[in-house]
Each structure stands twice: as C-alpha cells, then as structure tokens.
Design a protein that fits this description.
This protein is of the alpha/beta class. Helix content is 30%, strand content 30%.
C-alpha cells in the first residue's frame, strides 16, 4: 500500500482524538518554538501537521507565517474546516515529505513531531534531510520529535525507527549544529505511554 493510501485510511476511519499521537495541545513543541523563534514574523513549517492543533496555537500566539504539510488531504481538509476563516492565514501543502518540493519557500523553523521515525528506508531519510537543507534558511532551526530509545517499535501498524539524540543528529550530519535535546512522555488516548525524543539543531 502506498503511504498516502495508508494515511488516508487512518484519517478517514479514526476520530481526530483517537489516534495514538493525539494531544489537545503540543506543549513541548510550542514552548521550544517560542524559545527558538520568538519573533512572530518567523516562517514556520509543521511537517505532518495533519489534524494537529499546533497551527491553531501558533496563530493564537500571533505567528503570521505558518505552513502545514501532510500526506493526507483528508487531514488537511479537517484542520482547514476547524480553523474556518483563519485557514486563509496558513499555507497548506499536501504531499509526501520524501518527494515534496517547496519551490522558493524558505523557513526559519522546521517542526516535525512523529513523521521522521516512520522513514525506515535510508534513502527516504536521505531525501528528507536533503529537503531540509534546501528549505531551511541558513541560521534557521530544525525541531524534531521522534520516538526515543524506549519508544514503541510500531505505530499505526507500521514499523518505526527509534532514536537517541546522537543517532538522530547523525542522520542530518554536517551542516547542522545540535543545540539541545530532551526526552518526554506522551500519554496516548488509549491510556498508554510513549517516549518521545525532542532534538533541535541549527542549520
């Protein structure tokens, strides 16, 4: 099954608050974004933003240059409807992150919570990193959240790759300066816990 078909099935058949990665607000991501890019004019992209409320919270905090990418058009449509007129303030992208082209668009901060760990093919990870290199402005930030060393081995029926800060930074390689990392526990709607690694670096 093509990845886009898999995720369309997920978002069509599950309530937005019934998927394991759901959180009412992405508190850790919001805190780190505001620390790294306090300027409300900063250009921010949320990779795999789908039905996440991060875009709502960024707009509420007066960020004026927010973009969202997801492989599922169903997820993007859901969030656009939730935002109502505010959806016009966001730049929306539907596409596979390993094949997408942002054109001339450049970002001050690249945020990814729970996409990169699904890339089990090294070639897909390389394509992802090359897109980051092309899309993040020099001096910009990359904020990643993946499953940590004690995180799940699978999610949504798919295998994942778990990371510590060194192995995740190794995937990005030279040209990225690691600035910090932390582990955090995510409580799923099913009552289980997942360990996430947050890692941020500068391009």
């Amino acid at each position: 099954m093509h990845p886009s078909d898999h995720w369309e099935n997920v978002y069509r058949n599950k309530s937005f608050d019934a998927v394991s990665w759901y959180a009412p607000h992405l508190g850790e991501s919001l805190r780190l974004i505001q620390e790294l890019c306090p300027d409300a004019n900063a250009s921010i992209i949320d990779i795999g933003g789908g039905e996440s409320t991060l875009v709502d919270d960024l707009l509420h905090r007066q960020y004026v240059d927010v973009s969202v990418l997801d492989i599922s058009s169903t997820a993007i449509d859901f969030t656009r409807q939730r935002l109502g007129p505010l959806a016009q303030e966001v730049t929306w992208h539907v596409g596979d992150i390993t094949q997408h082209d942002f054109g001339d668009q450049r970002f001050d901060l690249w945020h990814d919570r729970a996409v990169f760990h699904f890339l089990t093919d090294p070639a897909a990870r390389q394509a992802y990193v090359e897109l980051v290199r092309r899309s993040v402005r020099p001096g910009g930030y990359v904020l990643m959240a993946t499953f940590g060393p004690d995180g799940p081995l699978q999610c949504s029926g798919l295998d994942v790759v778990r990371y510590d800060d060194q192995s995740l930074h190794h995937e990005f390689g030279e040209g990225f300066q690691m600035m910090g990392s932390q582990l955090a526990e995510h409580n799923t709607p099913m009552g289980t816990r997942q360990q996430f690694l947050y890692c941020w670096c500068r391009a």
